[in-house]
Amino acid sequence: MELRLLILGLLCDQDLHPYEVLQILKMRQVHDYIKVNYGTLYYAFEQLEKNGWIEVKEVIQEEKRPEKKVYRITETGRSEFKKMLHKAFRTESKMFHPLYPALMNADFADADQVKAAIKEKIEKRRETVEFLRTLFQCKVSDHPYGVVMLIKNALMHSEVELAWLEEFLLGVEKGRLDRRE
């Protein structure tokens, strides 16, 4: 659903070729905060067209290049987009973290390897926090409120994640992985 919602949202603004949509999503670094499979983009366009939510506006044929279809959203597509958008606002999600299965079995792990891995994660998370802080400062004045709030949420989550990782590392360094502690 996320990819269709993103495509339809972009097409609400302007008519686009799928490759242009891909470039916009990558430029906006959507993959950093939304689980999106770019490999299914063209398939998503096919499905949206099949459902009547988008249509070909024009076909551009450049010399020695495959034809390029530029799409626009239909009225049905706008209606479905609104339904999907409002459903997304109501959707509850569970929190899954890739470390959870490892944490459930952490007492079997080698503490030195865990320390090294957590230190790497902490460094990457610090970089992410700094990037998001800078991005937030840049976006706050001239971007839509929803985008600003998305970045703020990602920043806050990253800050909490960093604090959690640092606390976990302290526990590992104190020998807390040992089952007997």
From TrEMBL:
Q: Where is the Transcription regulator PadR N-terminal domain?
A: 7-82
What InterPro entries does the annotation carry?
Answer: Tscrpt_reg_PadR_N, WH-like_DNA-bd_sf, WH_DNA-bd_sf
Protein's name in the database: PadR family transcriptional regulator
* Species for this entry: Effusibacillus consociatus
